[in-house]
Every structure is written in C-alpha cells, then in structure tokens.
Amino acid sequence: MIKIKKLIFTILAAIVFVISCSEKPKIPQQGVFTFVKGTVLHNDQPAKVGNIVGEADTIVTNEKSGAVIQFENSGLITLKSKTKLDVGKLIKGEDGLSIIELTQESGSTFSKIAPNRGKYSIKTPTAVAGVRGTSFSVEVHEDKKTDIKLLKGKVAVSKTSMKAVVQEEASQEIILEEGEKIAATAKGIEKKESLVDEEKKELSSLNKIAMVSVIKLKDTNEIGKATEQNITQEVENQILGEAYQESKKPIEPEVEKKNLNIRKITLDDLRKEFKKLSVINTKSGKKYIGGFKQVGGEMHIKTVDGTVKVPVGDIKKVSEYK
User: Fold this and answer.
1) Cα–Cα distance for residue pair 268/258, rounded to 1 Å
2) Which of 111, 155, 169, 311 is the most exposed place for a label (fewest CB within 10 A)?
3) Model-level pTM?
4) C-alpha dihedral over 151, 163, 60, 82, to 10 degrees?
5) Residue 14, phi then psi, degrees to nearest 5
C-alpha cells in the first residue's frame, strides 16, 4: 500500500513539473518616452524623455501638454493634451509577440501599431478597441462618450463591461475598416460612419511620427535627435491642443515699397549693422541669411529682402554665416 502511495505521489509530481515547464514565460516589455512637452506626469512625477514605462504605470498630460511613448518595436502611442492613461498588461510571450493592454480614462490618443507584432487594445469607459497592426485615434469626452477613428488597418470595437475581453471573433464586436469612425456611449455602440477629409488630414499628420530604432531608445540624446526630425511644429501644436494657424508660420519678407529708388541692402550693410551674420533654418524648411534679434516670442531676422518675423518655436537651427 505504501509503495502504491509513493508511486501515485511520484506520478502527480511529474505531471505538475511537466505542466509548469510547458507554460510559456511572460517576458516584461518596456515603453519609453520619446517626446515630452509641457506638464506630463508619470506616476505623479514629472516625465522626461527616456523614462521607462511599465505595467501598472499611470500617465497624465495637463493642458497644452503631450507625450509620445514607444513600446520597443511594437508601436507607439501619442497622448494629446488633458489625457489620462493607465498601463495594464505590457508583456511579451515566448514567441516574441507583444500583449499590450491600456486603459484610457480621458483625453485623446493616437496609436500607431506595427503589424504582426502581437495584440494591442485600449479600454475606455464605454468601449474596447483591439488591433493587430493599425493607426487609429481614441477620444474620451467628459460624458464618457468614446470616438474611435481609423486611418489604416482594422479595429475591433466592442462595448466595455467589467469583464470585457478583446476577442477577434466576439459576437458583439464591430469591425472598423480603413477610413471609418464610430462612437460608443453608455447606451451602446453607434453606427459606423466615414471619416471626413479634415479628420483624415489630422490623423495622417500624427501618423507621420515614426518609431525610433530600438538601439537609439537606450540613448536619450539619440531619442531627442530622432524626435526633432519626426515631430514638426504643426504636429506638436496638434498634440498640445493648439490650432496651427497660418499666422504662426514665418511671415514672408516685408519689402519696403514706398520709395522704389531706395538702394537695396547688401550683406555688407548687414555685417556693419550686426557685426556677424547667421544662417537661420526653420522647421518648415526655409532658410534665411542675415542678422537677428529676439523680440518676445519672435525672432526678427533682417535679410537683404526685408525683415522676417519667425516664432522662436519654429526655429530649427542657427549657425554662423561665413
């Protein structure tokens, strides 16, 4: 009898060992802040470029503030002004595929997820959006209504419940196709509609934010350089919730036209006035040669063609003209 009990115990122990070995380990995945502007809190502390984001973290962007978080090579999420995001699952399976589950309590986000890299979902008070490679936005209004707009790929949208799980074959989910949008309220999910041109333009602008290479994610300086190339002034203003107006673009040179006989200013004249000249490059791609002075939030650049007024935030680089 004792031998039989020992045999049974040995068999059970072997079964438990086999089952435990067969389970695929959960490998933690990281997120990294690649862009931070204004007041952004990460677990109630000021966020900085290069900060690591993990499971159970909370990110909050205040008014006129925003951030971009990249999940290694799986994708990235842009948090616009006045947004709160909680990180649920952030892991990789043994197969290397990601499982990223986020909860968005308020505000607006734009997700750009690489295809065939795993599962990604965002849960709001009224909806769950699950994807496997796509570009889409999620906006949660004060009344908890959720707007989901899809630029590329497909999104499975289902109603939020306390036991909500994103499943691709769920009977009550609605599949959004490219160029469609949908709204979800406490009463349920509304009918799909097509994006208007202005919405497509806005999403396309945010979609231009490219992922930083995984190698560069380990170097804060490299992240900064890559972000400077990725995020234009127009996109930055969109993230911060500020309308990008034509008046914010560099004003065309103002040429004196009252007296056509007046002698045109030369570079030598400018050198005498400013001692040395500079080359000013703007984020919109324009280049000016001349002397400059800063007046408030603008840089006044005097060139041979007249004076140009450029917002300081639009300046990309200033170097000496030789």
Assistant:
1) 23
2) 169
3) 0.68
4) 60
5) -65, -40
